[in-house]
Amino acid sequence: MTISVEILERLGDFQLDARFVSAGRLTALFGPSGSGKSSVINFIAGLIKASDGKVTVDGRVLFDSDKRISIPKHKRRIGYVFQEARLFPHLSVRQNLAYGRWFAPAEDRSTDSKDVIALLGLEQILDRMPNLLSGGEKQRVAIGRALLSSPKLLLMDEPLASLDQARKSEIMPYIERLRDETKVPIIYVSHSVAEVARLATEIVVMSNGMVIASGSTEEILQRSDLMPVEEQGEAGSVLEMAVVSFDEKFGITLLRSAAGEIRIPGRFANTGKTIRLRVRARDVMIADQRLKGLSALNQLEGKIAGINRQGPIADVKIDCAGTSIMSRITYQSSQNLKLAVGMPIIAIVKTASIDAGNNARTTGMT
Amino acid sequence: MTWLELSPEEWNAVYLSLKVAFWAMLVSLPFGILVALVLARGRFWGKSILNGIVHLPLVMPPVVTGYLLLLTFGRRAPLGAFLADFGIVFSFRWTGAALACGIMGFPLMVRAIRLSIEAVDRKLEAAAGTLGANPAWILLTITLPLTLPGIVAGMILSFAKAMGEFGATITFVSNIPGQTQTLPSLIYTFTQVPGGDWGAMRLTLISIAVSMIALVASEILARRVGRRMELA
Fold first, then answer.
1. Highest mean pLDDT: which of A44-53, A320-329, B33-42?
2. End-to-end distance of chain A based on CA atoms, in angstroms?
3. Contacts of B229 in chain A (CB under 8 A)
4. What domains appear along chain B, each with residue ranges and CATH number?
5. Nearest-angstrom CA–CA distance, A71 and A55
6. Is the Cβ of A80 closer than 8 Å to some Cβ of chain B?
7. Coil, strand or helix: which one is A67?
8. Residues A226 and A210: beta-carbon distance below 8 Å
9. Is B129's CB within 8 Å of A47's CB?
């Protein structure tokens, strides 16, 4: 399943010139407000037209300016979850859910109402009117409604942006299940590093109407130059690690991958499961030898793979047996340690946040 | 309380008025929705001219409207003669009263529905489109249901206007007892004859009652629809 998008359009003073191809389960369109992310998915959905462009989803051409193809939006079979839910106020939750299903051709009905209702936990609110729902519930119904139209592709435009932190944590696990349990690929618009790190498999970074980078989540999140200035400390690495054991006495979970072992407080998943661990660059220190008498539990062996200086700051890329870990230290420290590419060092991981199922939280490990 | 008892002539007028108002409202409704849609959503040359024509009955003297109807639908008028060949006659019939009332109430109906259509959030229509609904289905399942309060208000206004219409009706179809003598026409007749005061008073009270019932009914309906949706 491949999605390919090319769009060239002038919107007032704004020039949109974006092209990307993605085969990811959940592709994040990532960038600051006003970078053209929403315009891109509105274009994919057929809500706006472009003077020049092309959209293909799984080999099916939805728009091609050269060949003068433009399939109307109701025939594109693309689900859209809007920022403000947009539930139909005159229809109950059940009727809202049935709306898209009704218009889907019978032979195309790939989703089952019961499954979707269970997946999104909507059993209790089926007979309510939308005005009686909380923001989080509304958004879940909107996701269900879009899924039940049996789309070939699901677009989500900052579906969490209008919700508070508690509601966000309520919805995120559902989106993860969507990503992992349904067959519909997702394009997810967001400007939040935390959301993207947790949800995305691929990231397309946009700025000023242009795609400036794209690649796997691991790859993109290591580049602090792509992160918004106020969130540059959020840049870091995503590690996939297996749960090895849980220490009942201290309440510590031991994780292992080729890069080494990491201990985190709390219980997250059963032994043998793989979980996603996000390590912020600013939470990784560098030592030239293993340290004793240090409260941090996690010391990984690695080699310096690259140093990128930005003024007083140095972003250091560490290769730990094939896994990249980013560290953000002062340029002065890197000079004091005489860091150079190829030099063996110890990466000390102070904190990490777990992005795994329902157990997402940030944990301190000092 | 014998003064409150209606004579057969008065009952006739009340019944005729209700019949005329009902049909005037019902027949003009589809046209009202169509014109309101075109005015609310359409972008075409001559839109302000159409808007002006629709509103003419509101600003012209009713007698002028009635006279224009007579010139168009009278038996000897080209259109009237043509329709008469198919058995459709308006002049000096209750159907003519309904036509006059419908036209006089039309701008009120269109205004109410148009404002309601303009208040519909077009983002909801876009959402329906992404769910696979074509424009006709969007209109039927989203736009019109959300316009319902305005449609109800427009119907009530049209009905109330028809109940009270006098000038255009009497000019077009005259004041024939049992045929075209509506409630306002009969009140007028009573005021023109000696000793007609009690009759005029009785019918006036009925007029007020009908208007009040229509208003209250529209309030209740609008509130019920509003409570169901509460566009938050």
1. B33-42
2. 43
3. 89-90, 129, 131
4. 7-227 (1.10.3720.10)
5. 10
6. yes
7. coil
8. no
9. yes
